[in-house]
Amino acid sequence: MGFWKRLFSSKKEYKSAAKKWIEDTEKVQKSVRRILDFLFDSTLKELLPEKISLSLEPISGIRIPEEKIRNIFQGLDIQTLVPFDSVSDAMSLETQEAILELAARTVAAPSKIFLMKILNQAEVQSMFADGLEKILIEFNKKLNPLAGVFQAAGFEKQISGFLSALLPGFTERMAEILHSSSESEAGKMLIRNTLKILFQSGFSEIGYIQASDLRKHLEKLRDAVSRDPLLEKSLEKFYENFRDSILNEYRAETLKEFLGYSEKEYIHFRDAISKNTAENILAIHKQKPLTELVSGLLEDVLE
């Protein structure tokens, strides 16, 4: 009986301590600061283990009934989902300009070979041919009063044959322009202006989500990913290469040093994160008490 009494008393103490901790934002902030200090004062070698355990199998357990997916997407109205009409309404002009400047000055030029593979697709070539053919026919009708006679004589077929011979050179030239344009001032202005249009356009102009057969396709993707050993090995290899590339240069640096924080900057960052975290934990606790969860974790650690 004495054992059970002591155990029951301990559990009551765990719950009391957990409740007191959750509802005291200063204590939560202190705990979060402790976690951040541990992470940011650790070296990258200490934070990046040589091997990680990675399994995609749990993805197979992600299931949402089709009816619920359909209802969510049918009721997903962008205009009511977000409290603003466009992206530009959600941020200051200064922030927008900073994003536009970053996008315009960041060079990520795809290779000419990659662009040729895209542009040489039959569907893309067909779109080019149809568009150019219509332009040439309309141009001929405007300038040539005998266009009807030529058309009857098979002028359109002649244009099609001409375009078939012209398209490979046209495609290659377009690939060259696209490849080099990202480094030119004109290309950078194109990127900047395109993003600006995107920011200022209303969400209704951008498009909508269609949920036709969504669950079937999502389940097919989920099942394929969860049983894909090649993808699993690729992710593990990506982590290994990523780790090696960082540790080759910066293994002895702490996370704080790697990110270039001064002590003052780090403390400001840490305090802001800990304050927000404490406030959010308390907000969740008021809706769904976290006392049982935290006291259970405390019990797992101490017993």
In percent terms, what proportion of residues is strand? under 5%
Quaternary structure classification: single chain
Number of helices: 17
Shape: elongated
Computed CA radius of gyration, to the nearest angstrom: 30 Å
* SS class: mainly alpha
Helix content: over 70%
Blueprint (SSEs and pairs):
Blueprint: H1 2-22, H2 25-40, H3 44-47, H4 66-74, H5 78-81, H6 93-105, H7 112-119, H8 122-143, H9 147-152, H10 155-181, H11 185-200, H12 203-206, H13 214-226, H14 229-250, H15 255-258, H16 263-287, H17 291-302
Describe this structure in words.
With 303 residues, the protein is an all-alpha fold. Helix content is 75%, strand content 0%. The protein is built from 17 helices and no strands. It is elongated. The chain starts with a helix and ends with a helix.
